[in-house]
Amino acid sequence: MPRRIVVVGGGAAGIGAAGAAKLADPDAEVRVYTEFEDVGYSPCGIPFVHGKEIPTFEQLFLATKQTYVDSGIDVRYETRVDALDLAAKTVRIAGGERVPFDTLVVATGFHYEDPGIPGSDLDGLHYVKNIRRAMEWDPILDEAKVAVVVEASPIGLEMTTALAHRGLETHLVDPRPWALADVADPDIMQPVEESWIELGVKLHWNTGVEAFVGEGGSVRAVKTSAGELPADIVVVCTHKRPENRIAREAGLKVGTTGGLIVDERMATSAPDVFAAGDCVELPHNVTRVPVQGLSGSHAYAQGKVAGTSAAGGQRVYEAVNVPWGMVAGKWMIGGVSFGETTATALGIPFVMGVADGISRARYYPDVKKVRVKLLAEPGSLRLLGAQMVGGEGIKERADFLAMCVKRGVTLADLAYMENVYSPAIGALNEPIALAAQKGLAAATTGG
Amino acid sequence: MPFFEWVRRNSEEYLLEAAQRDMARKYLQRPAPAGRRGPLAFLWRRVFTPLYRLIPWGVRRAIIQAMPGSHRRRWVGRAPPGRSA
Q1: What is the tens place of the pLDDT at every residue in B6-54?
Q2: Are A411 and A392 in contact (CB under 8 A)?
Q3: C-alpha A198: how far from its chain's center?
Q4: A245 close contact with B: CB closer than 8 A
Q5: Do A408 and A384 meet the contact criterion of CB atoms below 8 Å apart?
Q6: Which residue of B has its CA nearest to A382?
Q7: Do A206 and B7 touch (CB under 8 A)?
Q8: Which residues touch A190 (CB under 8 Å, ≥6 apart)?
Q9: Pairing state between β A240-242 and A110-112
Q10: Distance between CA A259 and CA A241 in Å, rounded?
Q11: Which of A225, A264, A290 sits opposite B74 (nearest CB)?
Q12: ipTM of the complex
């Protein structure tokens, strides 16, 4: 009898799990349940369609429904799983049907934190998550004049930039003193802020959102601690929280982040039950503090491990170093592990080196600034983390530095690293090396 | 919300708030975030955060590692700062 593998959730983790399970055990019956109309698209691309950088939502689809049929993966669309019975090894579909499984992958994703303020049920509040809702909402942007983005989270940064590109008067409201303040450092974000101001964005820092004000059931303003902002549309970009209701009710153990506890095989606390994506928590490789709510590439890779494990294969995921990067305003920002703000919050000792370099030869057209900030462990000088802002080459540096953190590379290694010099693509002095030299100097002087 | 989740959520919020206050002053000359108000917020801000900052990193790390979570299960990776692999 073929192995019955049920996957709950059709996002990056769920689809990654289904594909890997089928690869590991081609005879397995792999069934995916999703409450949405589609799978196999890039939700991360939605802000770029709103911003008109990408012409159509259709371009975000990576595979057709027939692709999954041809792969032998049975996707059940618009079908919600409302309970897991781990003792009976069944999932209960909304409506009552019970579906048996031999192994289960929970990939239920995330939900945006409820702002918990009056007016949260008004029409006109938009949450960036589902492509069909984004398709329905997008034409409204042609008519709207004023947009308010609530919270400068990663998706908040992308939507702020997108709405400004779209020509709307865009307000960004956040209770913290700068954008992405829970992740990025203020000196890294300052060029981004300046570029938003150039794009006409109105920034409201240290400003709490107190209520959404409605008229006729639709939002017409946002009441903040600094006054009321009229709004034709509001985009709510609060923290992503793990969507774990059915997993909690089934008794799966949850960690301090609210994410499901898993091991390197993505095995949960229950036998034959695996989990992946935004609904789990993982240890940070440097601090060993559990983290949750990472990128789509993390979710997809975890899904691959969970699916392989569910199909009886051997594959492990590693503690995460969290390379990240994105476009915000006219800049690219990125990093790995953590920056000065997080290190200060946790109280992790560090030495730091910061350097401003360039992306190409100084005389070459379109040369861009690149700021690199490196944090290292005092004494050993092993790299702990990095943050960057620049006009280009941020993603590649973040990937490289993630490998450096993983392998315990030191500031001394980086300070005199070999680097590519070619006027059109790289400067004589690599900004990473310059920052490492500054860090070495700081370590020597105790600065 | 389970106890350890509540501890993590609040400690993270107030430790980040304190760090953001320091960083805003250092880099931006901006005021500190207002944050929540009330007796519980007062305790987290005025008692927990200064106490946490007084404890050496090694002790803090041990407390963090003792909390339940994925980090206590089997994982490949390097040792935390201040401890050799």
Answers
A1: 999 999 999 999 999 999 999 998 887 777 889 999 999 999 999 999 9
A2: no
A3: 26
A4: no
A5: no
A6: B81
A7: no
A8: A178, B27, B28
A9: antiparallel
A10: 8
A11: A264
A12: 0.91
